[in-house]
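Submission checklist for the structure archive. All mandatory fields must be present; incomplete records are returned to the submitter.

[x] Identifier: CKLF-like MARVEL transmembrane domain-containing protein 2
[x] Organism: Pteropus vampyrus
[x] Residue count: 259
[x] Sequence attached
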Amino acid sequence: MADKGKKDKGGAAAPAAPPPAAKPTEDDAEEEKEKKPSKSQQPKDEVGTRKGCRRYLWEFKDSNRQFWVMGHAVVKLFSVGCLIAAMIMFTGTAIHPLLTLIVTMEISIFSFFFTVYTLAIQRYMPFILWPVSDLLNDLFATVFLVGAVVFAVKSRQTMPMNYFIAVILIGVAGFFAFIDIFLQRKHFKGKRIKKNVLVPPVRKEQVKEKEVAKPKEEGKPPAGEKTKEGEKTKEAEKPKDAEKPKDAEKPKGKKGGKK
């Protein structure tokens, strides 16, 4: 019996080893990559759902690209450069304080718009119509600078060379501002004024009242259908005897013959 037990123990087969795991193929690896949550792809021409620093970087690049490609930055730089050079040339000569006021005012305004467009500040203040404000600034700058040139020429009988060069530089700055007016027109091409812009938005309460009133009106048949049904019932109530052919109604002859 002991021998049989030994044989049974020896005869019992060892548990089979698990089959080797299949190596992941390239297709499986691609499927796993697709399953993994990837970052949302944002459009290049629009802000999309960017937030925080990502949005500001996109706005900064797009604003500078438009500002330099459309020529506004170059024109404003030339205007500011000419006005600064004019202020330098005015040193050492007696000038009217009005000229200094106009030149410094235009330098500050041009610098303001240059800073706004460079740092993309206008993208975060959409309630201001920036193309319109820049267009009006260029228009007024042209008028002020041309007026400054006329005033500078009339206020003095003799003009030194540095004064004459400063007046010419002011005129060149006004010419560049005039060019920028035509560059601003590109922003308004292909755009139409929206209708009902000044109409106040509809309140939520009014919208709910309209939605409640619609199903009640849908339950009632329209007035046109009522009239048609009424006409049909009246026609059905009319007796058939009333509808006799006209040929059946013959005129009766006169009684009595000829005498």
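[x] Structure attached
Curator remark: The two ends are 161 Å apart (CA to CA). Residues 96 and 152 are 8 Å apart (CA to CA).
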